[in-house]
Amino acid sequence: MVKTRTTGYAVLGLLSIGPMSGYDMKKFAEESIGHFWSESYGQLYPTLKDLESEGLIEIQSEQRGAGANRKLFRLTAAGLDELRSWIVRPVRQRPVRDELLLKLFFGRHVEASDLRSIVERARGVQERALADLRHAEKEAAERTQEPPDSPYWMMTLRFGLVMGNAYLQWCDEILDQLHDLDRIRTEEE
Fold it and tell me: What residues have CB less than 8 Å from 115, skipping those under 6 apart?
């Protein structure tokens, strides 16, 4: 059983794709699962150490150039079994922690125009994230050889696209409502 909770399973999942250095894992995670799962990279090496002590991964040294070595982490058979066991367990539901929603919830204490600017910024961030996902979708469609993980990766990509578009629609609705609240407050003054 992985001691480091879901972080350990994320690492096992990354290593199921193939051996990677810590840097490779960080970079690959940012470009893939980073769209829906964030990990503290300060926890990466302690997690790798724990996984190694549990026999779920092993470290291999790779020669790079003149005297330079890098550590590659590889999933063991026990690590793959642990990953498989975790994947089929029911998902633990966690409450959403969204600072924008928290600010809107208590929004009556500020001007609607202040909230509008916050929502507009959040909308802009989401538009850029969607552009990245669309780019990833286009690149995937252009690949001539699909990795075996591709159908599963595309499922998560599709989730990101659907949720991102829904988020933009929600932002537009909220911006309209905040505009109306601002107009009503101005009329009352």
Answer: 103, 104, 107, 178
